[in-house]
């Protein structure tokens, strides 16, 4: 199983569930990721086997607590990297978004934490604005 592909599924399921307030359906995931329904079913089974998702046939899939934690972390990583690329390095928004999608899977926690600190957490990690906090809230639980 490719970690990047797993991450895409986690993020997609997370966003669909959050948007709909209900479990994500196989067809929704397939449409969002532009893949076949059988591919989605196969990945959902893998996510279930690893404890990241819970699937109920004809009802849908939801992330477990660990799956949600990973999805939130991925979204945070993407946001930090995208904003760093566009706001600090001046890279075009579309290119920054595309590059962040690649880098979010390969960038270490220590690098992300330093980028987040460099950018002073503002608008990236609202919880990090608490006085006296010197580590990124999402990376330093």
Instruction: Work out the number of β strands.
Output: 2
Sheet with the most strands, sense and barrel status: 2 strands, antiparallel
Helix content: 55-70%
In the sheet with the most strands, the strands line up as 1-2
The helix/strand order is HHHEEHHH
- Rg is 16 Å
What is the count of DSSP helices, taking H or I runs of 4+ residues?
A: 6
How would you sum up this structure, described in words?
This protein has a two-stranded antiparallel ribbon. Helix content is 60%, strand content 6%. The chain has helices spanning 3-20, 26-33, 37-49, 65-88, 93-103, 109-118, and strands at 53-56, 60-63. Helix 1 packs across helix 4 (65-88).
Chain-wise SSE layout:
Elements: H1 3-20, H2 26-33, H3 37-49, E1 53-56, E2 60-63, H4 65-88, H5 93-103, H6 109-118
Antiparallel strand pairs: 1-2
Helix pairs in contact: 1-2, 1-4, 2-3, 4-5
Which key phrases capture this entry?
two-stranded antiparallel sheet, 141 residues, mainly alpha
Short précis:
The protein is mainly alpha-helical and 141 residues long. It has 6 helices and 2 strands. It has helices at residues 3-20, 26-33, 37-49, 65-88, 93-103, 109-118, and strands spanning 53-56, 60-63.
